[in-house]
Design brief:
This protein has 474 residues and is mainly α. It is 48% helix and 5% strand. The protein is built from 20 helices and six strands.
């Protein structure tokens, strides 16, 4: 697979030439048909009108699938954590499962280069839309808002996988070539700045997107901000942003217990932002099914759930019935993720791969409340936990005699069984709460080491940019 170095783009026009040619090949909706240029595609031409600029915007979203970053988060993080079993040496990417990545590992490299490829496109859009004289002001505002949301989202995954990373916020090659790794706090500050600006620029609902939830609106930026603030230990702002999303009842609501199997449909009212999958070889690339249940039934099943995850569901939890599949082999029952079920890709997908959804916002607010010594405190946290538990068909918890520590343990449990296999949530939770050593050390005593909480910086990146330093342990 071709690798893209984040500093390897020699001229801006090369990136746009590749972008437009890729767009012509993938056949996205609303794609403007442009005659192939004989020499170069200039930014001034691409951003000369709303319609032309829309092609670049579509390309940015497409790269989140085709650049092998977002479609690979699921397998990498679930194997790295305690969600899927990657111990079978016949399966690909087992070094994620044993936490034995090396700086030459192509799986980690594909994540790094995929995120930076999308960031590069977002940077081009931000700069050139801002400078465009041919686009309408309202469209310019929306496109910059979308690009900043996408940039923030990609940096969020970079910083949580690799730690300090180069903070590329311009398409200028010379500037990017000289960048060292920025401090984690600086990366988060940029993410927050982008998302705050996106909140002011993005539409309030999805009507501009034909009611599809595959592009961000104002509350998608708020939802990602809530998650980011939680990771930054800024619990006041995490609670505030999660509440803003939860209170947007005109757009979002939890499905009933009886309808829990429909949570991941593309028009689900729980979906805040989702990736519209691209088809390849007759199979829709959603976050989960491509890596956990690929091909004909019970065949080519790559990564089964760990027994610890399969056994983490309480008796009567409807999520286990609705979101897990199972099969028996040699007298043993094995489980796999089945949140997504539209496997064949024979028509327009029934499901989009959901990156942000409403139930996470309840659990973000629950944790933010539990960690604060204010009036909401444990009682408010337990109320949010019980919203999720009730929907799952489980009995409510009693906050009367619950300590803060017990409340946080309950939140960790609910996050585990509610958000499993969803874009690295469990892997990041174990790391940010300092639970990785205890949990993964016990699960993988032969291979786990504390430094594995960060993936290695790809060796090719360090060779091309010697100012980049390597993470400890590699």
């Amino acid at each position: 697979m071709r690798k893209y170095n984040f500093i390897s783009y020699k001229k801006i026009y090369v990136g746009f030439l590749q972008l437009i040619m890729a767009l012509l090949l993938i056949g996205c909706d609303n794609l403007l048909e442009v005659d192939p240029p004989t020499t170069e595609v200039l930014a001034s031409q691409v951003f000369s009108s709303d319609a032309n600029a829309n092609a670049a915007l579509v390309g940015m979203y497409s790269s989140m699938v085709t650049a092998s970053a977002f479609m690979n988060i699921g397998y990498a993080c679930s194997l790295s954590a305690d969600e899927t079993d990657g111990s079978n040496p016949d399966y690909p990417f087992t070094d994620f499962g044993t936490n034995t990545l090396t700086a030459s590992d192509y799986g980690a490299s594909n994540l790094w280069t995929g995120f930076y490829k999308t960031i590069y496109q977002a940077n081009n859009i931000i700069e050139n839309v801002t400078n465009s004289t041919g686009m309408s002001d309202s469209i310019k505002t929306q496109f910059v808002g979308q690009a900043k949301f996408v940039r923030a989202l990609n940096f969020f995954y970079l910083v949580n996988m690799f730690g300090p990373v180069p903070l590329t916020v311009t398409p200028d090659v010379k500037t990017n070539n000289a960048l060292a790794r920025a401090a984690t706090a600086d990366v988060y500050a940029q993410i927050v700045s982008d998302l705050k600006d996106a909140e002011t620029k993005l539409p309030a609902n999805y009507s501009n997107y034909s009611s599809k939830r595959d592009k961000p609106n104002k509350r998608a930026a708020s939802a990602l901000l809530a998650r980011v603030y939680l990771y930054m230990d800024d619990y006041v702002n995490a609670e505030e942003k999660a509440t803003e999303v939860i209170n947007t009842t005109s757009l979002y609501s939890l499905l009933s217990t009886a309808d829990i199997g429909n949570v991941f449909l593309k028009d689900s009212k729980e979906s805040i932002f989702a990736i519209n999958p691209q088809t390849t070889t007759g199979h829709w690339l959603t976050n989960e099914d491509y890596y956990y249940y690929y091909g004909s039934q019970y065949q080519s099943l790559y990564y089964i759930l760990t027994s610890s995850l399969a056994n983490a569901f309480e008796i009567g939890d409807v999520r286990k019935t609705a979101w897990l599949g199972s099969f028996d082999y040699s007298g043993t029952t094995y489980y796999y993720g089945a949140k997504y079920r539209d496997y064949d890709g024979s028509s327009d997908p029934l499901e989009y791969s959901i990156v942000l959804r409403l139930s996470e916002q309840y659990l973000i607010r629950a944790e933010a409340r539990a960690r604060q010594s204010n009036v909401t405190g444990t009682a408010g946290a337990v109320a949010d936990i019980n919203v999720i538990r009730t929907r799952a068909g489980l009995a409510s918890l009693d906050a009367a005699n619950m300590t803060q520590a017990q409340c946080l343990t309950s939140i960790e449990q609910e996050r585990r069984v509610e958000l499993f296999l969803e874009y690295g949530n469990r892997w990041f939770d174990l790391k940010r709460t300092n639970r990785a050593d205890a949990v993964l050390g016990a699960l993988k005593p032969a291979t786990w080491k504390s430094t594995a909480v960060l993936y290695p910086i790809p060796l090719t990146e360090i060779q091309n940019a010697p100012q980049l330093t390597q993470n400890d342990g590699y």
